[in-house]
Amino acid sequence: MSVRSVLAVASAALIAGFALAAPAAAHVLVQPPPASVYAMTAGRLWSLVAALLGLVGVVIGGLALARSAGRIGTGTGRRGAITALVVGLAGAVVGGLVVAAADGGPGTGYGIVGGYIALVVGLIAMVLGGLVLARSRRTG
């Protein structure tokens, strides 16, 4: 099994898991954080997961963009581009949910800073995926 296939299957499993966990996440996100400032709260955990999703999308999109820039692999990277778009979108949506559910500002335990980071990283992944798709349409 190739690395691309493993990444595609892993990202699809993550996205399916998040789609099934979204109602539970919305319920968990509205609960108040514990008294400890250093504890891993639900908001912080979800913002971390969203940021990691966005980061995976950026890596896949960057690899697809690098592959589509070479002469040998011209036009190959559509799967990577679509994966980067989908994973980046998932990271941005989860990050947006964290930001929307946060009642306090930075340092309150709701994960608002991580949510904003996930939004930005997810959007970057989507831009990279879009660039690869645009490049593959021009050459193919």
Give a verbal description of the structure:
This protein has 140 residues and is an all-alpha fold. The protein has one domain (41-139). It contains four helices and no strands. It has helices at residues 3-29, 42-69, 78-101, 112-139. Helix 1 runs antiparallel to helix 2. The chain is elongated and about 55 Å long. The model has no long low-confidence stretch (mean pLDDT 78).
Short description:
By secondary structure, the protein is mainly α.
Topology as a string of helices (H) and strands (E): HHHH
Shape: elongated
Helix content: over 70%
Give the total of beta strands.
0
Give the total of domains. Answer: 1
Pfam families: DUF6223 (PF19733)
Keywords: Membrane, Signal, Transmembrane, Transmembrane helix
Signal peptide: 1-21
Transmembrane segments: 45-69, 81-102, 108-134
